Amino acid sequence: MEKLTTKASEEQLLYAKLLSIGTWIGLAVLVITFFLYVSGVLEPVIPIDRLPSLWTMKATDYMHAENLPHGWGWVSLAGHGDFVNFIGVVMLSGLTVVCYLAILPIFIRKKDKAFIIMAVVEILILVLAASGILTAGGH
């Protein structure tokens, strides 16, 4: 009986390596920023003792009541304990784009038109979605 073996391609190995490294870095950032929040090292925009009274609100009502920015407006509040954790979330969310950008030159070098097109379209869709240009739900 013949044994079948498979080998990961150059682009698969690079994608997996970047995804692994990025995930561990993103998780470390999440742990550190959570500690900064719960320890009180960074003062929150919304005091923790006020949160239970706000949890019953819809997100849009909560943001309006507390005069919080929407979309990428959180960046201006990233120095506060309750917003600094968004940094890790954004890092993890952006990993796919970073990985595709890294493997795109391999597809180009191999002249793999189908994968070039798919990678570029994927990058464009993700960047457009993250940009906030397309919105749903009222903002």
Question: Notable features of this structure?
Answer:
60% helix; 139 residues; mainly alpha; elongated; 6 helices
Please give the structural blueprint:
Layout: H1 10-39, H2 51-54, H3 59-65, H4 86-93, H5 95-110, H6 113-131
Helix pairs in contact: 1-4, 1-5, 5-6
The whole-number mean of residue pLDDT values reads 92
**Which runs of at least 5 residues are low in confidence (pLDDT < 50)?**
none
In terms of DSSP E residues, the strand content is under 5%
- End-to-end Cα distance: 61 Å
Describe the model:
By secondary structure, this protein is mostly helical. The chain has one domain (10-131). The chain has helices spanning 10-39, 51-54, 59-65, 86-93, 95-110, 113-131. Helix 1 runs antiparallel to helix 4.
Question: In brief, what are we looking at here?
Answer:
This protein is mainly α. It is built from 6 helices and no strands. It has one domain.
